[in-house]
Design goal:
By secondary structure, the chain is an alpha+beta fold. It has one domain (about 50-180). Helix content is about 30%, strand content about 35%. A five-stranded antiparallel sheet has the order 1-2-3-4-5. Strands 7-6-8-9 form a four-stranded antiparallel sheet, covered by helices on one side. A hairpin with a 2-residue loop joins strand 2 and strand 3 (about 90-105). The longest helix has about 55 residues, at about 10-65. It is elongated, with a radius of gyration of 30 Å.
Length: about 190
């Protein structure tokens, strides 16, 4: 009996071995890419928390440096806050206005600062994005109610500077809070 061997074709065992090697190599590549993506998402999540910390520190610094100024009011609502504060200008630190405003459509918290000259010329101030991907924001104002003889949180500012301000920021269904006492309040 004569067996003819075809030198151009592969045997079934050779194909199985090659298929197994390709499977093992692709499984290793998948594991490396998968763990890389997990690490990348953890790093990005940490960056957003760092941005939140920076925003809270800036907010605290602005409120602690606020002062009584006849021509600039301390005004606040649930989604915005305008305060007199020391701002950077070409002359150094000068009186000005700092505005925190939340854009619900873009889900961005803005911080704008105007020095005294820009307030009266109507020029735009330095506007920066403080935080993005913000689901919700809420400012609350702490006052002493002389009629009720108790301390209360209000949704809007009154004629006087509040004792404290509470900022609640919601990111990824988590609420983050910052309470800031104001040293010069009228309480």
């Amino acid at each position: 009996m004569l067996f003819l061997k075809n030198k151009r074709s592969f045997t079934f065992i050779e194909l199985a071995i090659v298929s197994l090697l390709i499977f093992i190599i692709s499984l290793g590549i998948y594991n490396v890419l998968s763990s890389g993506l997990k690490l990348w998402s953890k790093i990005l999540g940490g960056l957003q928390l760092e941005d939140l910390d920076i925003a809270f520190e800036k907010f605290t610094s602005d409120l602690r440096n606020t002062f009584l100024f006849k021509n600039i009011d301390f005004k606040g609502t649930k989604s915005s806050l305008e305060i007199p504060a020391k701002v950077n200008s070409k002359f150094g630190k000068t009186p000005g206005k700092v505005v925190y405003r939340y854009d619900e459509n873009k889900r961005i918290l803005f911080r704008e600062e105007k020095d005294f000259s820009k307030l009266y010329t109507g020029s735009d101030g330095l506007k920066r994005i403080l935080l993005d991907n913000v689901k919700d924001i809420e400012f609350k104002y702490y006052y002493y109610d002389k009629k009720k003889l108790e301390y209360v949180w209000e949704d809007e500012t009154k004629e006087e500077i509040p004792l404290a301000v509470k900022l609640k920021i919601k990111i990824d269904d988590k609420d983050f809070y910052r309470f800031v006492n104001i040293p010069i309040s009228n309480g």
